[in-house]
Recover the amino acids of this structure.
């Protein structure tokens, strides 16, 4: 069982999977430069396709896999499903150029813990690796919006016992919920509401508890379904 927090001395072992050698080398070079009290990363290996990814994941047991979607032999969605099944302690972050709904939904359903686009700033990628290692879901804001819209339109609510229309939430918790639905991370929510990230985390925890939801993605979908999301495009 993974620890909730990353210790200063603990290395996050990352497997890089992409069919372009230059992308793999660039990611390796950047990640290996990340060594601080807050985060230390060790590249566990590289793979050029989904078949290699599944095999290397089994052999190296990495903490995080940065996984491309479109690859030869086996794509990222198939690889994600197999990796999650055989390596329950390994978390997959999809890192791709494709943010279309028909790729996002299957990847999340396959068990990906994160879905990021390759235009992500390097420092945000490092933060995402750390957050996913701690068990948090990481979605590119545009991906989050597409995911929420698609799920809200096509699926029934996952928790019928959830409190209706934000019942029981304080005014501040509803504000936080709206910003979650906009795809904002904790830092952005803190800046928007002029409060600390620690306070944001407390509000998020209270929201999930009161609405009987498992994670912030479900909370965002709940907000969208119950008219609690903003009208921001």
């Amino acid at each position: 069982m993974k620890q909730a927090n990353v210790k200063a001395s603990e290395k996050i072992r990352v497997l890089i999977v992409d069919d372009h050698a230059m992308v793999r080398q660039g990611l390796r070079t950047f990640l290996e430069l990340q060594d601080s009290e807050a985060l230390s990363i060790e590249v566990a290996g590289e793979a050029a396709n989904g078949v290699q990814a599944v095999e290397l994941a089994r052999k190296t047991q990495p903490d995080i896999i940065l996984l491309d979607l479109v690859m030869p032999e086996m794509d990222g969605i198939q690889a994600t499903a197999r990796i999650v099944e055989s390596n329950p302690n390994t978390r997959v972050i999809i890192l791709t150029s494709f943010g279309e709904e028909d790729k996002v939904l299957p990847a999340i359903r396959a068990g990906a813990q994160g879905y990021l686009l390759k235009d992500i700033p390097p420092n945000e990628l490092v933060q995402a690796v750390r957050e996913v290692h701690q068990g948090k879901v990481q979605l590119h804001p545009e991906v989050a919006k597409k995911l929420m819209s698609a799920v809200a339109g096509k699926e029934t609510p996952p928790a019928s016992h959830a409190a209706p229309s934000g019942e029981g939430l304080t005014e501040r918790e509803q504000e936080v919920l709206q910003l979650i639905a906009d795809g904002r991370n904790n830092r952005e929510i803190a800046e928007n509401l002029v409060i600390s990230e620690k306070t944001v985390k407390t509000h998020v925890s209270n929201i999930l508890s009161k609405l009987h939801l498992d994670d912030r993605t479900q909370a965002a979908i709940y907000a969208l379904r119950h008219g609690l999301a903003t009208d921001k495009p």
User: Anything to note?
Assistant: Residues 197-211 form the longest helix (15 residues). Residues 1-9, 154-164 have pLDDT under 50 and may be disordered.
